[in-house]
C-alpha cells in the first residue's frame, strides 16, 4: 500500500491502493532580484539611483497563502544593502532589518529570504540600509487569499512614490538645519499678510505653533521634483474601460475569530453526537468534518479538541471543502482513499511499514512551520523522523527544502536526491501565468 503524509494543522493520513509513486509537491514561489546602481531620468536629467531588476519600483512579487515564498537578492553594488518586508508576518530572522534581525547583504554577495505566506493582502518591501529606499529600493508585494474574496474586471497594483533629484543625504542634512528649508522650492513660504488677514485667532494659532516648534507650512518637508505611479509621472491603462469596477483593496469582510470558534463548536457537536447518523455520501457533513479536522492541532482528538487560530488567519475552509467534494475531479481522487487515521508519524510508520509499502512524507519545513503542530516540530522531531526512515523496510519519498543537517541524516551516496519542478494550478490567476516552484525529494529507491 502507498501512503501520503501531510503535516498541516493536523496529521491526516490517507491510505491508497498501490497505483504508482508520484509525489504531490508543496507550493513554493521563487524570485531572483538584482540590486544595482543605475542612472534614471524622471525629470529630464540623469540621476544616480538604485534599481531592482533595472526598474523603480522593483518587480511586483506575488504568492498565495500557504506558499513558501523564496526571494534571492543579488547585491551588485560596492556597499551593503537589505530588504525589509513591511507589514508581513514572518519568522524574525527573515525580517530584514540589518544588525537587528538579519545580517545585511554584503557588497557583491547574495541572500535568499524564505518564509511561509500565512495571510493575504497588499504590502511592500524596501531597504532598511541608510537612505537607499529614497533612491529606489522598494517594491510591491501581493499575497492572494486561498479563495478570491471579491470579483473585479481587473487587478491593478499601483505604487505611488515621490522622487527628488537631490542626494537623499543632502536632503536629510538640510532638514536637520531647518524643517522649512524647502519652502521656497515648494512655493509654500509663510505669508504674514495672509495670517493677519484672518485676524487675531490666526495670529494666536501661528504663535502657539512656533512655541511647539511646528513649521508654518508643515505638510511635506521635502521639495520633491516628481511624483510617480509605478515609476512613471503619468500612466494610462488602455485595457480598462470607464464602466468597469476596480476595487482599491482586495479585502473582504470575514468572520471574527469568535464567530469561527462558534461555527467550529456547532460542527463538532453535530458530527460527534452519540445519535448522529448520515446517509452516504453526504457532502456537507464531509466538509464540516474536514473543517473540524483542519482546525485542531496534530495529536488532538477532533471530538474533544478546541478551536485553534491557525497562523493568525481566521478564514473558514468550509466552503472550499464543500466545493471540492462536489467536483468530479476531486471525487475521483477521494474514491481512492480507503482509510483515514489520526496518529503520530512514528505510530503510523511502525504500524504500516513493510516490504510492499510506500510512504510520501511532507514534514514541516525546517525552522519555518512550527505553527503547524501542538508542539514545536523542532530538531528532535526532524531527527526522530530521519532515524525512522533510515530503518524503513518499504519505499519512501521525503519532501524537504535543503538545510544543513539533511545531508548528514540522508547522505547523497546512500539516498537519491532529486529536484522536482511543479506548477501550482491553484495559483493561476486570470490573465497571468501559473506559479512555478521546486522541491527537494529524497528517496530510498531509484525512481
Task: Outline the structure in words.
By secondary structure, this protein is an alpha+beta fold. The protein has three domains: 209 residues, no CATH class; 117 residues, Immunoglobulin-like (Sandwich), CATH 2.60.40.420; 44 residues, no CATH class. Helices cover 22% and strands 24% of the residues. The protein is built from eleven helices and 17 strands. Strands 13-2-1-14-15-17-16 form a seven-stranded mixed β-sheet, with no helix packed on it. Strands 4-3-6-8 form a four-stranded mixed β-sheet, with no helix packed on it. The N terminus is likely disordered.
Q: Keywords, please?
A:
single chain, 447 residues, alpha+beta, Immunoglobulin-like, 7-stranded mixed β-sheet, 17 strands, 22% helix, 24% strand, disordered N terminus
Biggest sheet, open or closed, and with what strands and sense?
A: 7 strands, mixed
| Poorly predicted tracts of residues | 1-26, 249-253, 425-430
The chain-level mean pLDDT equals 77
End-to-end distance, in Å?
17 Å
SSE arrangement, N to C = EEEEEEEEEEEHHHHEHHHHEHEHEHEE
User: Per the principal axes of the C-alpha atoms, what is the gross shape?
Assistant: elongated
Radius of gyration, whole Å: 28 Å
How are strands sequenced across the largest beta sheet?
13-2-1-14-15-17-16
Number of domains: 3
What is the number of helical segments per DSSP (H or I, 4+ residues)? 11
Determine the strand fraction and express it as a percent band. Answer: 15-25%
Total DSSP E strands: 17
* Helix content percent band: 10-25%
- Class by SSE composition: alpha+beta
